[in-house]
Structures are given as structure tokens and as C-alpha cells.
Amino acid sequence: MAAPPGPAAGPLPHRRADDTNPYISRPLFTLPPGTVFTSRVTYEIRTPTPGTAGPATAPPARPARGGGRGALVAVSDLHVRYKENRDIVEGLEPQSADDWLLVAGDIGERVSDIRWALALLSSRFAKVVWVPGNHELWTTADDPVQLRGVARYEHLVGICRELGVLTPEDPYPVWEGDGGPVVIAPLFLLYDYSFRQPGVTSTHEALARAEKAGVVCTDEHFLHPDPYPTREAWCRARVAATEARLAAVPEDLPTVLVNHWPVVREPTEPLWYPDFALWCGTEATADWPVRFRAAAVVYGHLHIPRLLVCDGVPHQEVSLGYPREWQRRSRAPGRPVQILPVPAAAGDTTGTPA
Known about the structure:
By secondary structure, the chain is of the alpha/beta class.
């Protein structure tokens, strides 16, 4: 069962791990000299090789394609209401007929734009897997579809099923191409305001502090949790249902967890406005990457495309972001990030701590 959407992120300034590298590939499992360890997080930046570019309860479904071919690639935060971003999406092409594409939320706000992008991408890639971001869950005055909360989410799931796009409500597929077999787990979890600043002990206090600092996420106006009483309640329902489902995945299979919001708190540390982390995830999922054998975690939302290695698990933000953000980067935007197979290192690509 779907849960009502939570607060959405408005455009907020933040610093990046490396503004020159819009997409950062997964690390090798043997990390090179110079990789920096801080607490449970390892930060590493790699330049990608050109061209690398409640939930259902059924067991993981074996795909018809595969046979050791293709790549598993990912994008998020396409924000196609901007013409420049729409042009980038129109240019997205797979490198192989067997490539799968993970879309980690925030295609746009209008249902027509979401349908357009998913129809285009699903016509090109062997399989597309989508999870919602906060922007898809907004109900804005200029969208003819005025559904709210769970009803809006279920409407989007219905569109995906028309197009053959997998969602968090479908059986988890198994990637059996290069780097597999791996269970692909699309997640829809929202947030519960638990990414609070030190010393802040309640949601009420945290939101009051954020408002005083001038930080109020746009979700508070457009992301409605109907029929749940609050976004926190919707989040709790999603977390409980998803946790049970992940626990049922066969223990001999690793996973790739795909969620719009980070599933651990560490990716929010570079935010210029620390209070904005309230709208970025939940502490309830902090142990999931290790507990559910994640080979990688794919996320978006922050518009800080980079790689973190936390407790030995690569966490890859794959966001495009707004034109004003990606236009500052030297590398051409819009290339999907390769998740599997793990890309080979290209020269000396180790970066500095984010």
C-alpha cells in the first residue's frame, strides 16, 4: 500500500564533492591508496569512462534478457520542466540493447511530463525501473491531475505498468547481466524528520528550528500524505512494508537498493543548510545496506552527484539537477552512471573528502 508524500526539496544552495565531475562511477571493491576514511564513511571520486554511462510480496522475478551482456545504469532528478533538461533526456541512449536504466525519482511535477519521459526511456532501454521522488508526488495547481497522496502515487504506478516500467509495487527483478545476479530493489520510503541536528530531540523542535533559519521544504505545501494524517505516518508505513519485503529476499543474493532519498544520513553532511536534512530520509533505514547485502545504493534528491562508501557499501548519487547546477560543471551532463558491472578505474581518479 502506498503512503502519502512528504515534504519536497526546493532549490537550496549546497556544496559538492567535486563540481567538475557530474557523474561519479562506483569504486572498485579494493580501494586505491589515497582513499580517505572518516568514521564509517569512505569518500572516493572517480571519473567515469566515456560511454559508461505497500510493496508487492511476490518473489524476485527472473528477467528474460541478460546472458552476461549489458550494463545497469542509473539517473535521477531529471526535472524535465526545464527545456535544457528535456533536451538531455531526449538524448539518453543505451550503449547496449541489454542495458537496464534505474530512474531514482524527480522526473518532474506534472503527470504528463512523467509519462513522456518514462515512455521515451522505456522505448530505448531493455528495462526501466522507476521510484518516485518528492516532485512526482506534488499536487500543483497547473497539473490537470489533481490527485493527492497515495492516490497520486498509485496513479503513477498505473502509468508505469502501462509502459512496462517496474516500480516499488512490482516483484523485484534480478539483474543477470554483467555483475549479476543481483536483486534490484526499487524503494519508496519518504522521510520522517529524523535527520535532526545534534541536541534536537523532537520533530516539532526540529521544524521550528528550520523555519527560524528560513529553511522550509516545498513539500510542506505540495506533498500531501492523504489518507495518512502526516508524512511521518506514511513514511512509517512504507518502511515497515518494505523492510518485511527485503527480509524475504533470498540470502544468497546481493541487492541494489534504489531510493530517491538517501537511506543513510551521511550524504546530507555537505548541505549548506543542515536543517534541510529533515526532508532527506529516515534513521530507520541506517542499517539496511549492510543488513540486506547491498552491492550498491542508488539515490538522488540532494543534487550532489558523488560516491560515498559507507560501512563498505557504495552509495551513489546519480542526480542531474537543475540547469543552473550542471551548467557549472566542465563535463557534459546527462550521462547515466554505471552501477554494474563495476567500472574499471581510469587513471588516477581518487578525489578528496567531500
